[in-house]
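Worked problem 6 (solution included).
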Amino acid sequence: MSENLTFFNGERLKSARLFNKMTVSDLAERVNVSKQAISQYETNKAEPKIEVLLNLTSVLGFPREYFYKSDKKQIVSGDTYFRSLNATSNRERMAQIERVRLFANIINTINQYIEFPTLSLYGLKDNDDIDVEVLAENLRQVWGISSNQPIHNIIDEMERHGIIVIDVFTDSSKIDAYSQMLQIDRKLMAVVILGTDKENAFRRNFSAAHELGHLLLDDYFNVNDLTKLEYKEMEDTMNRFAGALLVPMEVYKNDLMTSSKVDLNLYIQLKRKYHVSAAALIVRAKHLDLITQNQYQYLMKQLSQKGYRTSEPFDKETPSIKPRYIKQAMKMIIEEDGVTSAEFLNALDENNVSLFSDMVEDILNLPKGYLHLNDEKGKVISLQRK
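Solution. The predicted structure is:
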């Protein structure tokens, strides 16, 4: 693709508009032009005059240079899997998809400084049926994890095997996690976004494993062709996979070879062993036919009566698990190598991703002002006492 352009790039305008959760009408009203004008700008049928361009950059929060460049590397976005599809608006989902594209471009720049682990995934062949137990066991073998070993921090395992994981605060509490496979110049990038609005360690471990299932089965589903019922069934499959991966079948069967399997306290205690919620453990027991439907309903009723649907024992005192690799990479670049904001933003600009520092910090979930850590450091001065 071309790099620096001498003309306005309408595709970038559309991307920026979607990132800001705006419709064509929204943007037209804010910039004080017609909807037709915005449509013409986005389809490259017309170029905004300087005063309109200044308004566009101000409203959308992107530098002027952003609109006169195109992606240096070809990015092909795959399906995006939202855990709460029915509870989120199309506007919100499109904004998050654009966020992932920008995120991928920023990661490409970080890759100039830091080498991340190579992506390692196991997937089904086209003619295979989905057996979540087999899929989970095969992934454990590929990743060198014992068949009987609980996985207390699946996020760490995902990052160690080349999956880019980040937790991002979203202004919509209805989005808790989503994932996407991308091709960047034919090289695969797997991205998982975990919302910071649900920092329960046990639920987050399960949520991350759920998204991992989507990445493994990316070629198996086409979300655009799924009905609401089929989408729900797909999500149920991912929950079953997460249970199979985090709660190994044979070990768990041994744990439930007791009359206490109808005692809610057993599942509360097993949380610490498997690092998933008691509710998820009860569902796992039902999926494995270790408890009957009546026993399952009794246990879930007990959860509700004790108020454990929203918060279970051990939830508050257990530290949340967080992605580490992106923050560690930025620490190496900014804190250890002393790269200034101007230097990092210039590296982004050379990759045709002109952004303001506050937007980069927001997308990477960095503290405000983090990129400017070295900006005030001048040359070392040497003073002598009299």
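Discussion: The mean pLDDT is 89.
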